[in-house]
Amino acid sequence: MRLDKFLVATGKCTRSVAKRQVRAGAVTVNGLAVRSADINIDEYADTVTYCGEKILYRKYTYVMLNKPEGVVSATEDGRDKTVLDLLPDGVRTRGMFPCGRLDKNTLGLVLLTDDGELAHRLLAPKSHVKKIYRFRSRFPISEEDARRFENGLVLEDGYETKPAEIRLDEGKDGGIITLVEGKYHQIKRMLEALDNKITYLERLEFGPLTLDATLARGEWRYLTDEEIAALETHASRA
């Protein structure tokens, strides 16, 4: 792998910054400063440091994105901007895809990765990965409807949802919803089954991941080693 691609893939910098840092002598390979970012390295065997920090290479990439409104959870779309369009070229070209989907107007946490096996395990129906959302509804939700929601609802197509959790705020027209499944437009359809309507929806958690409060809408970051390990542990239980 080329050195500049390695630095981009490991999340240290963009390709243009990599070239500048290499020219400045801030990058070493096996203890020796290099002056060209175009050299090829063995990403598994060579020891690379960036500004004094040893860089470890991972086979797969894991990204947390704070999805804004109006962006679709897809790899490509003929009309709308996708979650991949919010990533820089050096990351977007690595075969990234969203692990699960959020509706176009739903905000919040999206996991993007090129690790197909892990994504498959996390999204498998038997895995029961917990997903937590903040919501607002058009009308207040009664205690009776909240109990119906928690016991599982029959949707318009006859599908019976699994038990879910709903914690209402003081005004009863919003709060926190926790699901262990992810059917198409599920929360929207569950509120419609209660003759209500979702007016705001934001995903706060996906499995062991919690949306980074420092990420503005449309911003992203690589997962930490601890977050990746937590995902792998979660997936191994599926």
Secondary-structure map:
Elements: H1 3-9, H2 15-23, E1 27-29, E2 32-33, E3 48-50, E4 53-55, E5 62-67, H3 89-92, E6 97-98, E7 107-113, H4 116-123, E8 131-137, H5 143-151, E9 165-168, E10 174-179, H6 186-193, E11 198-206, E12 209-210, E13 220-222, H7 225-236
Parallel strand pairs: 7-11
Antiparallel strand pairs: 1-2, 1-3, 3-4, 5-7, 5-13, 6-7, 8-10, 8-11, 9-10, 11-12
Radius of gyration from CA coordinates: 21 Å
Class from secondary-structure proportions: alpha+beta
Proportion of residues in extended strands: 15-25%
Biggest β-sheet description: 9 strands, mixed
Report the uncertain regions: none
Helical fraction equals 10-25%
Mean pLDDT: 92
Count of discrete alpha- or pi-helical segments spanning 4 or more residues: 7
Distance separating the two termini: 33 Å
Spatial shape? elongated
Order of helices and strands: HHEEEEEHEEHEHEEHEEEH
Would you count the extended β strands for me? Answer: 13
Report on the architecture of this protein:
The chain is of the alpha+beta class. Helices cover 24% and strands 24% of the residues. The protein has seven helices and 13 strands. The strands form two sheets. Strands 5, 6, 7, 8, 9, 10, 11, 12 and 13 form a nine-stranded mixed beta sheet that branches. α1 crosses α2 (15-23) and α4 crosses α7. The chain is elongated. The mean pLDDT is 92.
